[in-house]
What does this fold into?
Amino acid sequence: MRLARSILVAALVASVGTMINTADSSAEASAEADNWSRFRGPNGTGVSEAKNLPVEFGPSRNVKWKAVVPPGHSSPVFTNTHIFLTAHSPIDQKAPSEYTLYALALDRQTGKQLWQHEVPRPQKGRRENVNGPASPSPVTDGTNVFVFFQDFGLISYTAEGKERWRMPLGPFTMYYGFGASPILEDGLLILPVDQDLTAYLLAVDARTGKERWRVQRPHVISGYSTPTIWRPKNGGPAQILIPESFQLTSYSLETGKQLWYVRGLACEMKSVASIDDDTLYINGWGFGANQAGTQIPTVDFAEGLRRFDTNKDGKVSRQETIDHTAADRMERMLKPEAGFDAFDGNRDGELDAKDWEIFRSMLAAENGLMAIKLGGSGDMTSTAVKWKYLRPVPQVPSTVLYDGVLYMVNDSGILISFDPATGSVIKQGRLKGAIDKYFASPIAADGKVWLVSQDGTVSVISARGDWQVLQVNTMDDEVFATPVPADGELFVRTRSALYNFAK
Ligand SMILES: [Ca+2]
Ligand SMILES: [Ca+2]
It folds into this structure.
């Protein structure tokens, strides 16, 4: 149970949090470089040049406007004139699959709703608890918007809400439902589909909605991380960096070809990477049993069959793990209340040899925060890992790298600042009054960092290695979305509303 839950939480986080847009190279987007056009803003960094941001705010304090919006864990994206959101109708727990999906636009200045479209639902994808049906964030080219729903696929609308094109996709098999957000670069809409058995990476012409390339990724299982774009300083071609199950992998933006990878990531990735010129920082957490030094030894499939396969059909069934009296930690991990369904890639209730290898890989993986030197070709594991932090890391929230310091908030509200060059901890402390789960990712701007917990507590800290809490605000509502900074304004999406705060 604990295993399944932790995986779930992680997946959830990923979907919620990270979205970013590097300066888009298309002409129409060049003027929008400062805008928060994707999940986690510019290239997913969570960092903004915005100034004069509010520090003290809440439902009745420093509210410039408040727009009531339907729920959704996705984060809003911005143009100069528009705010785009994905959402769903409130979910009745008596009929949890009976909801409606929406794409909507608000006026950036007033918060007034400009349009709202219902998105069709040809599928009912896998979805559990926290990872809701509107977790992936939209992305914009500065004018048009691109939305993705796991129950439909991709749709693009104009600023006025006219449909430009649609591309139905799926159904999908991510263990916790779709969490990653699409990104936009060089006129290509990039969608990572990190799922069991049939993972792929898709590039779509943003103008026409036609597929440009699609690469299969058989080494990948369920994952939830939104990619980052890396343009090498030496002028080499742009690369798509994806924190995948077990490894960080680079793909050519132009062709989708796999270029290089670094092994050692966790078995289930949710966070967005932080990145500087030549190094990437990524945190990953699969289960508690993946903590360094506590990994559970496993046995090969033949021995697994000897222990579990009572009906001698060459597979280990769900029921066989239930009926078996577990003698050790490994055997307990196979039970349905632990990890069985996560190992059963094709969800047929049976573990075959392939499922068993995934089970062994997942148990052998290691939680942690890694600094990875970017570039190379093929397997770069032996030379690319600059440092690894092996103490507990969060399941979902991404790190933020700002002004020479790397910040990470743990699931219990412990904030840690790191020296990114060495991985050494500068300061670790509890965010007083904010001991809670975190799904939203931290953002940084204006010399400060904002951290939002699930219950809507927003801590504002001074952005320095020996950070101090400047203010603790309360939204009085649940928050999964990552906040958005803009000059003089801070936008926070709660379960029921989008707030624009200003001094
Ligand atoms: Ca059997
Ligand atoms: Ca199976």
